[in-house]
Structure formats: C-alpha cells, structure tokens
Design goal:
Helix content: over 70%
Strand content: under 5%
Largest sheet: none
Radius of gyration: 15 Å
Order of helices and strands: HHHHH
Number of strands: 0
Shape: elongated
Length: about 150
C-alpha cells in the first residue's frame, strides 16, 4: 500500500505543480507530453493525462481488467514524469501570473485530484487489485515517500 500511496502523493504533487505559473498563452488542445512548451500547455496536458489515469483506474474491477489497465497506467505515469521535468525546466513565473494561473486552473484540478485519490484508495484497499497500481511509478515512489516524511 505504501507504493500506491506514494504514487498517488506524487500525482497530487504533480497536480499542484501544474498550478505554478502561467505564461498567458492560450492552448486549444492538449499536446503530447513531448511537445509541451508553456505552463498553460503543461497544465492542460497534465490534467488530461490525470483524467485519463482516473478513467483507466475506474475500469479495474478484477484481475483481467487490472492486467489490461496496468500497462496504460505505467505509460500515463511516464508521461506525467515527463511533464514534471518540463515544468521544472520552464521555471517559476511572477507572483501575479501564478495567481492568474491558479484562478484559471485550480477549480478544474481539484476534482481530478479528488477522483485520483478516491480511485487509488479504492484499489489500494482491495488486496486483489492493489497490485495493478502499486508500482505504477516505481522510480519516483521513494521521492514521494521522502517528501511525505
């Protein structure tokens, strides 16, 4: 359960990171993680990937659906890690732009994070299903544990 909690904590941290700052540009679609170049694209893409992660987690009901979802969850986790690195490379913006960005995205991000945490909790509490989300982000689980302690 610790790895699952760590992965979910990392997702929450990533979600919060998407609320770091905005460069004021508009984006009408959600680009692939490899093409993100602005804070706004980062937020849009990150929220899209986390929504997708929630939807995949909701499909896990038994071993068959868990096995089917596991590869997709790992892929989404890798994309979120790529977005996190790109966000770090973009750096922080001014306090005014950060406040504008939070006002724009926080209301959309909170339900996604809530759903992500609920699904993670549902799966982690089921001994037969937790294995499918337990090691979704193995490279970052230790970092999330360190941040939590």
């Amino acid at each position: 359960m610790r790895n699952t909690a760590s992965a979910l904590l990392l997702a929450a941290i990533l979600g919060s990171a998407f609320l770091v700052g905005c460069d004021g540009s508009e984006s009408s679609s959600t680009p692939a993680a490899s093409s993100v170049s602005t804070h706004e694209q980062l937020a849009e893409t990150g929220m899209s990937k986390m929504r997708e992660m929630v939807e995949v987690m909701k499909t896990i009901k038994d071993d068959a659906t868990g096995q089917a979802a596991q590869a997709k969850l790992k892929s989404l986790a890798e994309e979120l890690k790529t977005l996190q690195a790109k966000g770090e490379a973009l750096g922080k913006l001014s306090a005014a732009k950060e406040a504008e960005f939070k006002a724009k995205y926080e209301k959309d991000m909170q339900p996604i994070l809530t759903d992500l945490m609920q699904e993670g909790f549902r799966l982690s509490m089921n001994p037969n299903l937790k294995k499918y989300v337990q090691n979704v982000m193995p490279d970052t689980a230790g970092k999330a544990d360190d941040a939590a302690n």
